[in-house]
Specification:
By secondary structure, this protein is an alpha/beta fold. It is about 35% helix and about 15% strand. The strands form 2 sheets. A 6-stranded parallel β-sheet has the order 5-4-1-6-7-8, with helices on both faces. Strands 2-3 form a two-stranded antiparallel sheet. It is globular and about 45 Å long.
Length: about 170
């Protein structure tokens, strides 16, 4: 059973584009549908982690906003950081689903129980992951991943009930 989702940011939670303002501020856009799915995943008692190679106050703000407790930036070897987290959480890679879009994600993706790549992810990885999503990064790919897992594990109705009961 999947207990932890590990999320890359640029190219999965966002489109992968990095925009700078004239004053040098970094801008990113996140998909609210992804956010709702992540928040729902957490409400179901599951765990989520962000492991990203870059550093961004915007991503830190988004992680806090969604209630993601496990948040790591400037990580060069994502699979090693994930190993540390799994040990801390007393989980194994069998309990992990991961999403990434490029070569720096591959060592982590190949260890996850189930791995995902957005439709616009790096072509080379598409035959190396378990699921190529229909959605692009930053356009609902994380939502699609979470719904895929919930359906596969028989939790989709519980997911829907989080919102229908209100």
């Amino acid at each position: 059973m999947i207990e932890l989702i590990i999320l890359d940011v640029d190219g999965t939670m966002t489109s992968g584009k990095i925009t700078y303002s004239n004053s040098g501020d970094e801008l990113k856009s996140f998909c609210v549908k992804d956010g709702l799915a992540i928040a729902s995943w957490l409400r179901l008692g599951k765990k989520a982690a962000i492991i990203t190679g870059r550093e961004s106050k915007i991503v830190e703000k988004r992680a806090k906003e969604l209630g993601i407790e496990h948040f790591y930036q400037k990580v060069k070897q994502k699979n090693k950081k994930a190993d540390e987290l799994l040990k801390e959480l007393n989980l194994s890679w069998e309990n992990v689903a991961a999403i990434g879009d490029d070569l720096n994600d591959y060592p982590m993706l190949k260890r996850a129980s189930i791995s995902f790549i957005p439709n616009n992810g790096y072509e080379y990885l598409k035959d190396k992951v378990d699921v190529v999503l229909n959605s692009n990064g930053g356009e609902g790919a994380v939502r699609e991943m979470i719904e895929y897992i919930l359906k596969k594990e028989g939790l989709y109705e519980e997911f829907l009930n989080l919102w229908e009961a209100n």
